[in-house]
Amino acid sequence: MRTDRWWLAPVLTVIGLTAWVAYATFRVFMQKLYWIDAYHYLTPFYSPCVSKGCYPAAAEFGRFLPDNPLIPFAALSLPFLLLFRLTCYYYRKAYYRSFWLSPPACAVPDGHANYSGETRFPLIFQNAHRYAFYAAVLISLINTWDAVLAMHSPSGFGFGLGNVILWINVIMLWAYTASCHSCRHIIGGRLKHFSKHPVRYRLWTWVSKLNARHMGLAWITLATLAITDFYIMGLAAGWWSDLRFIG
Ligand code: FES
Fold it and tell me: Could you tell me the pTM of the whole model?
């Protein structure tokens, strides 16, 4: 009986997520235009680059996965990132509502006759989110290391527009990861008295502020990831050149 445009959010979510997944899939299997040798820019979709097909200079952590068109160059990290996002509390809400219509919006009937929640196979595996969080922290560290290594030019130290884009992406990835509900629980959960744990309490208040923005950060990081990747692809393809400030 709702007469407002309750369907708008689910429709925008379907369009946004479908477009992003299509772009990411296309790029991950492209296996080229992911590395700028002069500036050491590596797109996050290929980090860490661990395939035998990677450029040697881009493979900071070694090249040990087979070079196969069906195996992404970052096949070590991508499954964990996918798990982290798929089991994220916000994305669960987003795709339950928009793709599964379960329910499509508040006070709108569920698209299904039965509802078993997340208590049974397969959705019981949504509980793996807390473990995916630890993997995401490790991968964010690797992305940070990539951004540090990218402060490079053929003459040594360098800084350009690509660095600005890479650092914005890394900062946003940390903000998204730190705003995770599992992170908030790890930091401030299971405590009976905050007064006896002042450091954890202080951290918990910071994380809680970020946590309130988790949905926004989820979308912002999808955008920064795609923009970073697209910028580096364009540089590698010669569509534009990097605006250099130093080096
Ligand atoms: Fe979204 Fe953990 S709840 S990343």
Answer: 0.95
Which residues line the pocket of ligand 1, CB cutoff 6 A?
Answer: 88-90, 129, 133, 180-182, 214
Phi, psi of 246 (to 5 degrees): -140, 130
Residues 6+ apart with CB under 8 A from 15: none
For residue 37, the CA-to-ligand 1 centroid distance in Å is 34
Sign of the CA dihedral running 195, 197, 203, 204: negative
b (16+ CB within 10 A) / e for 225-247: bbebbebbbebbeeeeebeeeee
Which pLDDT belongs to residue 115?
79
Nearest to 182 by CA among 48, 79, 45, 85: 85
The Å distance, Cα 246 to ligand 1 centre, comes to 37
Average pLDDT in the 129-156 region?
97
State the ipTM, two decimals.
0.99
pLDDT tens sequence across 45-89:
999 999 999 999 999 999 999 999 999 999 999 999 999 999 999
CA of 96 to the centre of ligand 1 (A): 15
